[in-house]
Amino acid sequence: MKQAKRILAILTAVASLSAGALIAAPAASAAGTYNGACGSGYKLVDSLPYGDATTVFLTWNASTGKNCVINQIVTSKGSERWMIGVWIQRAVSGSARHEDHGSFASYAGPVYVDARGTCINWGGWLGDDPSQHAVARYDSHCG
Question: Which of 68, 73, 85, 140 has a CB 3.0–4.6 Å from the CB of 38, allowing a cystine?
Answer without folding.
Answer: 68
